[in-house]
Write a structure and sequence with these properties.
344 residues, alpha/beta, TIM Barrel, 2 domains, six-stranded parallel β-sheet, extended, binds zinc ion
């Protein structure tokens, strides 16, 4: 009896030891992960500060050159030779100014990229700590893929009526002339794809990066916005990319955040792409049913010329979700979430 008791005590102590060891291990890894982001964030801040001081120097030099040029221009009491000499000085001063301005603007864009990366690192760190809680409770993020289209203006009008903000994940082959209007109405523009051709974009990492840069440049040219919001064609959980490049999504879902992009999937499917034309009532019903019991939702819809019933369903969706207590906001990099499980 005594021996049995001692044995069970030993087993009990051993189990406790295992539990404590497991807990310590988990805490240590959480600590390491958090520190990784801290170190990266600190490094980015340092580079950014260096950039800013360089930028200040460049700007000061430009100011000096400008006053020098102004002086040269106002001096009228001079000989031909002096004039020629001053003119050549003026020419080289202007060239120097142009060079510095170019340097200045590239520093500025470098700087804004760093800021984006830092913001995203912070968002990722928060996400690691709070898990799925990063998306605010009671918020609905309506998202429209594959636009702009002939339906965009109608969608914008309906959103206006309900004072709702949404996010448009746009493609390069669509009616990009509507991009400025989307931006002007205060909605978010996210990058979806330049071509949306799976066999092209998912061929390899380089192809994907080229495709993202393409749509980024189109959005920038039309709106002056460098978007850092991303939605992978087919979502991060797509299996189609496996046909072209094994493990691509596993790589891209790590790589793109490190490049300063926040990617978004969805947790409510409207089903508007289930058939060529899905009845508006079905789309509305899908959204309202699938939103039930969720704290925050990201709804997948499509903005293409063929999807008239999505537009028809929109008022019922906005009213139904409002009644359920949702408010409608646009995605930001800090929302960073709604990620699905990877399949490639
Ligand atoms: Zn799409």
């Amino acid at each position: 009896m005594g021996i049995f008791k001692r044995k069970s005590n030993i087993v009990f102590l051993f189990i406790i030891f295992l539990l404590v060891a497991a807990l310590a291990g988990v805490s240590y890894f959480a600590y390491l992960k958090n520190n990784d982001y801290k170190a990266a964030s600190k490094e980015l801040t340092t580079i950014q500060e260096e950039n800013e001081s360089e930028l200040a120097k460049v700007e000061k030099r430009i100011e000096e050159l400008e006053s020098e040029i102004a002086e040269l221009e106002t001096n009228s009491d001079i000989s031909e030779q002096e004039k020629a000499e001053l003119n050549s000085q003026l020419q080289s001063a202007l060239e120097e100014k142009a060079r510095l301005e170019k340097e200045n603007s590239s520093l500025k864009s470098e700087n804004s990229l760093l800021l984006r990366r830092k913001a995203l690192q912070d968002a990722i760190r928060l996400n690691a700590v709070k898990q799925s809680d990063t998306a605010k409770s009671g918020v609905c993020y309506l998202t429209f893929d594959d636009g702009p289209s002939d339906n965009t203006l109608k969608i914008l009008d309906i959103l206006d009526t309900y004072n709702a903000k949404a996010t448009f994940f746009v493609v390069g082959t669509a009616k990009t002339q509507y991009l400025p209007k989307i931006a002007a109405k205060g909605h978010a523009i996210g990058l979806h794809s330049t071509s949306h051709k799976y066999n092209v974009i998912y061929d390899d990492i380089e192809s994907y990066l080229t495709d993202v840069q393409g749509i980024s440049d189109i959005v920038y040219k039309k709106t002056g916005i460098r978007s850092n919001l991303l939605r992978f064609p087919g979502g991060s959980s797509n299996v189609i990319s496996k046909n072209y490049c094994e493990g691509l999504m596993t790589d891209l879902t790590k790589r793109m955040p490190n490049l300063g992009y926040a990617y978004f999937d969805w947790n409510v499917v409207s089903g508007d792409a289930d058939a060529a034309s899905v009845p508006a009532a079905t789309i509305a019903n899908n959204v309202l049913t699938r939103a039930k019991g969720k704290k925050s939702i990201c709804v997948l819809m499509h903005d293409t010329s063929a999807k008239n019933t999505t537009v028809e369903a929109l008022p019922a969706i906005l009213e139904g979700l409002s009644k359920m207590g949702f408010r409608f906001e646009k995605l930001t990099a800090e929302t960073f979430g709604f990620h699905q499980n990877l399949n490639n």
